[in-house]
Specification:
Structural class: mainly alpha
Shape: elongated
Number of helices: 3
Strand content: under 5%
Helix content: 25-40%
Radius of gyration: 32 Å
Distance between the termini: 71 Å
Length: 96
């Protein structure tokens, strides 16, 4: 259990000012936080527990690559001035 001295020490380390009338409330809140953290720390983590990755029975979520036919390069370049040998000319930053 956390006490008044612990709350004051934490406040000093965090450079917080605490109203003396709030110390009892802060002590109760801090106890609840620590209790919750302890609950999380005692969660089942043994080897017999179900692996998180397998909770939905997903074995392999990958799929095979699908190769699709691309657009014709010349067809793409015909709508752009300056295309040459299958490339677009791109101006450098700041170039007019």
């Amino acid at each position: 259990m956390i006490g008044k001295d612990d709350i004051l020490k934490i406040a000093k380390l965090a450079k917080l000012s605490i109203d003396e009338s709030k110390i009892d409330e802060l002590t109760k809140d801090m106890d609840e936080i620590i209790e919750f953290a302890n609950t999380i720390n005692t969660a089942v983590t043994d080897a017999e527990s179900e692996d998180f990755d397998e909770i939905n029975n997903i074995v392999n979520a990958f799929h095979q690559d699908e190769i699709l036919e691309s657009y014709d390069r010349e067809l793409i370049l015909k709508n752009r001035e300056g295309g040459l040998d299958g490339y677009f000319f791109v101006k450098r930053r700041g170039e007019k």
